[in-house]
């Protein structure tokens, strides 16, 4: 009884405490740590937003890089002409608008077809932007000057990541969320029970596209130079999936954990073995999928069961 | 547009299409039998291309000979990957969705590893070599000899694959596995052995087509992704799991792409290809022959 009540209080105190900790942390650490935290927040936001569609409904999307890229381009085009927070909002909204515009026909496609289609769509978007740059503007990429300091970017991403997680959490708890889960379990059955699966998927797709737009627009300022190849990189989509799977998609803290772990591993490898970094990353990925197919949380879950077992057995000691 | 130009477009389209068909067959074989989407397919092609490049520039070996070596090396790669990674995963008896999503990750990891090993070995530069660049005239159409001969080899390999799938007992077993997996296992088809077999064949054909492509196009460690996408387009056109469909789909895609480029501009090639792809998947996701899985 006590433990369950305790569990209820942990998030109520822990989350605000963590937020306060993360907001004052940048003033005490070096810029390197801040940029590392910024990377983690980026991936947390991207992965958690991906979960809203792909984790909840089981429609594995490789289209997140397109939304990321569009966010980045909106920022690149309107930087200096509009206030900074407004641009982020516009970027996010335009990503969402695009998702809503293409959502209905795209989400009619199921299973592996959906996976390939979203990959194709994001590559299509990439080439349209490449064509726009080369043939219309006569340029390759864009340089952003006078970007805000890294702490500002950090706080923007902290806010974005927080709202992404909040949004995913609220959806997960709502009737809407249950509808999405039912699509994952059995779409036809869900439809026959009166769930308008079309609208549900469409909404989830749009909401899930909102956040990568915002992240992309902040990341354009972080990188200071963008071109279609780098911001529409399909690796972004793949990395999101890797993180989500790594952490396990069953719970909301899984992807957060996955994003943290993979970013830290990459950073560690990148600093020490720059030439072998990607190869090692690939091998790590194979090992994880092969031996931990349900994600890192599986170990945590097993440990919890073991501890609970020990406690009931030796209740007097603990 | 005059007659000669039309003939030229059709010729180029067919040659590109023949190569596309070969590129796509391997992907379709693995998808058909195992329901796994091999997103590392293009990287296997890349490995084959580099082997042929190496043989040619270091030892002066004729690419038509080294394509056999490319095929052997990549099919060996397929054997190892399938034995170590995929067969154990399939045998765990997890649900189909779990296996599908996990395999997507595994293939992604394999593609990262291959790309980066290639970058280490051969640097990230774009390379190429010229071989048989003589131009021959077929009636009124001038064709580069290397393209023509690559096309002919692709055609031969495709026909062999066709005969293998359509005429032999092994091919029958594979088709049975593609059509109805559970029933195929029930009547005593050794699915694990066939999985291994289709992996080896698919990787082998991919390596071989890589060697052919290296004669015509430039190669780089990052050339894989566009070919993976092309292969996806082709097998979606022909229907996932439909081996014959993907051979025909390759020709159709090659033709449509060439026509599209010739009426617009070469710079738009990627947009046209992806556009066709998206249109097909949205309008006819079961492929143009309507007999997908």
Describe this structure in words.
- The complex is a heterodimer of chains A (318) and B (293).
- With 318 residues, chain A is mainly α.
- Chain A has a single domain (31-313), classed as ABC transporter involved in vitamin B12 uptake, BtuC (Orthogonal Bundle), CATH 1.10.3470.
- Chain A is 80% helix and 1% strand.
- Chain A is built from 14 helices and 2 strands; from the N terminus they run αααααβααααβααααα.
- The two termini of chain A are 16 Å apart.
- The model of chain A has no long low-confidence stretch (mean pLDDT 85).
- With 293 residues, chain B is mostly helical.
- Chain B has a single domain, classed as ABC transporter involved in vitamin B12 uptake, BtuC (Orthogonal Bundle), CATH 1.10.3470.
- In chain B, 76% of the residues lie in helices and 3% in strands.
- Chain B contains 11 helices and 2 strands.
- Chain B has helices at 3-34, 41-59, 63-91, 96-122, 145-167, 169-179, 181-186, 191-216, 224-238, 243-263, 269-283; strands at 135-138, 141-144.
- The longest helix of chain B has 32 residues, at 3-34.
- Chain B is globular.
- The N and C termini of chain B lie far apart (41 Å).
List the secondary-structure elements of chain A in sequence, H or E.
HHHHHEHHHHEHHHHH
Largest interface, with counts of residues having CB < 8 Å to the other chain, equals: A-B, 39 and 41 residues
Q: Which CATH class of chain B applies here?
A: Mainly Alpha
Sheet with the most strands of chain A? 2 strands, antiparallel
Number of helices of chain B: 11
The end-to-end span of chain A amounts to 16 Å
Spatial gap, N to C terminus of chain B: 41 Å
Roughly what percent helix of chain A?
over 70%
> What is the multimeric organization of the chains shown?
heterodimer
Percent range of helical residues of chain B: over 70%
- Taking all residues together, what is the mean pLDDT of chain B? 85
Find the CATH topology of chain B.
ABC transporter involved in vitamin B12 uptake, BtuC
* Low-confidence blocks of residues of chain B: none
Q: Which fold name is given in CATH as the topology of chain A?
A: ABC transporter involved in vitamin B12 uptake, BtuC
